[in-house]
Amino acid sequence: xxxxxxxxxxxxxxxxxxxxxxxxxxxxxxxxxxxxxxxxxxxxxxxxxxxxxxxxxxxxxxxxxxxxxxxxxxxxxxxxxxxxxxxxxxxxxxxxxxxxxxxxxxxxxxxxxxxxxxxxxxxxxxxxxxxxxxxxxxxxxxxxxxxxxxxxxxxxxxxxxxxxxxxxxxxxxxxxxxxxxxxxxxxxxxxxxxxxxxxxxxxxxxxxxxxxxxxxxxxxxxxxxxxxxxxxxxxxxxxxxxxxxxxxxxxxxxxxxxxxxxxxxxxxxxxxxxxxxxxxxxxxxxxxxxxxxxxxxxxxxxxxxxxxxxxxxxxxxxxxxxxxxxxxxxxxxxxxxxxxxxxxxxxxxxxxxxxxxxxxxxxxxxxxxxxxxxxxxxxxxxxxxxxxxxxxxxxxxxxxxxxxxxxxxxxxxxxxxxxxxxxxxxxxxxxxxxxxxxxxxxxxx
Amino acid sequence: xxxxxxxxxxxxxxxxxxxxxxxxxxxxxxxxxxxxxxxxxxxxxxxxxxxxxxxxxxxxxxxxxxxxxxxxxxxxxxxxxxxxxxxxxxxxxxxxxxxxxxxxxxxxxxxxxxxxxxxxxxxxxxxxxxxxxxxxxxxxxxxxxxxxxxxxxxxxxxxxxxxxxxxxxxxxxxxxxxxxxxxxxxxxxxxxxxxxxxxxxxxxxxxxxxxxxxxxxxxxxxxxxxxxxxxxxxxxxxxxxxxxxxxxxxxxxxxxxxxxxxxxxxxxxxxxxxxxxxxxxxxxxxxxxxxxxxxxxxxxxxxxxxxxxxxxxxxxxxxxxxxxxxxxxxxxxx
Lengths: 445, 334
Prior knowledge:
The structure holds 2 protein chains of 2 kinds.
Chain A: E1 23-25, E2 31-35, E3 45-46, E4 53-54, E5 59-62, E6 71-72, E7 77-86, E8 92-100, H1 123-132, H2 145-148, E9 159-163, H3 173-180, H4 182-196, E10 200-206, H5 210-220, E11 226-231, H6 240-248, E12 263-267, H7 268-280, E13 286-293, E14 300-305, H8 310-316, E15 324-329, E16 336-337, E17 351-356, H9 373-377, H10 384-392, H11 396-401, H12 412-416, H13 423-444
Parallel strand pairs in A: 1-14, 9-10, 9-12, 10-11, 13-17
Antiparallel strand pairs in A: 2-8, 3-5, 4-7, 5-6, 7-8, 13-14, 15-16, 15-17
Helix pairs in contact in A: 1-4, 3-5, 4-7, 10-13
Chain B: H1 18-28, H2 30-40, H3 42-66, H4 77-87, H5 95-110, H6 123-134, H7 136-139, E1 142-143, E2 157-158, H8 161-170, H9 175-178, H10 185-190, H11 202-214, H12 221-240, H13 248-253, H14 257-264, H15 275-295, H16 302-319
Antiparallel strand pairs in B: 1-2
């Protein structure tokens, strides 16, 4: 029996249409828009102004706190303006817009394809480099990577878990990365292990990617302490807590971080970015993005510069299908619906999913029939059927008692509900409110 | 380009629906219906048809003319209630009583609480128990299987195995002697005994449960807890005195245990939401059933047991929560 996490979970149709499409390098676009808030935490502070000349890899915005990240120019050219644009959140946010001229890189970036296996940097140097390179969690959570590598005092980490699960339907960027950049990825994992001073790393990969499992197992045999853990296909296995449970049988307690059970989790994309930053001195200026959808002519995986408008990617994948009803940044379970095709690719964009009508619309809502399927599928063991009315009726204290803050917003409840009730919509609202109340309580205490 | 839809995640849905679940239950009841028609013939057809039509009609009328809302009969839940009510009635019951039962089941048991998903008690059982208390004679005359096939009201009647054994044991006769007067365990399992329309054929009910489990309409928790607790309770009594108490197999195969455990106790709206709650609720039904059967005045107690535990459902949901992630202590250094 294959391992998986212990509570709940669903199995949406996988639709990994682009799984066999090798990563294609997309040409540098004529204009890029680079939002300053591409990560969880404080938005970066712009270091450039209109008219400045920039090179590829040059820092254009600086980390603005402990939980924040640098941003580097993905192109060479001239800063057109620093202005507000609509980003993936749907709000207007600060961004740097650059008109591309040529493709001139900062000199000390190693752009060769030669594999640099030998690790010379010290743990401190590795963490510093990761921070400087602006690396954030590339699975979509975009938490600054260097913060996770500095465990709080008194906590120790004994296992590094690498997330190669890619449990979101449709997405294949991590899958392709493992197949095409396996060696680099493993060096990245060794770097992370060195930084954390751990002897063990587990790469969790779901069983719907047998080629990636076989390939990584073969390569990993030459890297001491690194092993592959094949996992049963089950959403949301890519959730940090679920993945630790699946790989090691350790459950992170409510309200705590993975470090509580001695684990740190990083995505395969993040590990690859770490390799490039430390071994090749290359900051995070590009990423692999899956462009897919049921009606799309040519689902593909593109290596694209950050800041590229998604319209460029959609065009390269065969153009926007006429029946498109919704454009999603990320996967169908946790991704965000985008408001236009001019939104740029950011560090956290793992995919662009084009949903055809009528799949893009929600079904009419029926009354709750108390079938308890939402309870069965909740990976956190919550009662979505109860949390929804509590949030609807603004009974915040009861929602807190019912552990609303444990919700990881995976959407399994809304996905499953036979009455198509908007369970997660209300739970999100409740989490925001209850979180606010809890913070104000500690502030006044 | 069309206008883009912007809504929060998740952006996909399983495709499950209220209809799929309700029609799934109806389909799961087809084997039991076939067995009922096989054993009770005409009476089974008349009772089932009347009950289903009456329940659907009452829901339609109440929704449309009393509540002035769109009709909800297409969701299939009224048909489920109608079929289950019929399955809990003897097949020689007069039409008028079926219609009264349907009016009580739908009107009082379901719509008065707000309709689909809101009923605290199983509507079909509300209808059945109302009839049982109001019309005890008509509700406890049982057509003899196969012999009653061609007739409806005037069908040949006889005792049920449960009443034979209950009266026999009360008269001080040993269980081993009474087993000669009732059908063999195999015939009990196949359904060749007196009883309500849909409760007799254990094999057909088991098929239906299998279908519901595969289709994930219900989970195993409630059926297993009801059957398990009855087996354990009656097993202990039977072992303590094999002549004074009937065997667990006898208790499981007779009366409405299987119909109740698989189809009545698992009613979504009136049963608990957490797995642990379901186990407790099922065990409660089993224990109360045995208490009524052995110490009560009725030979059968499944309906009452389910209704009593329905009343505890809100309390169970309040105090028994699903198992939370991280509840088991984190094992350090595995």
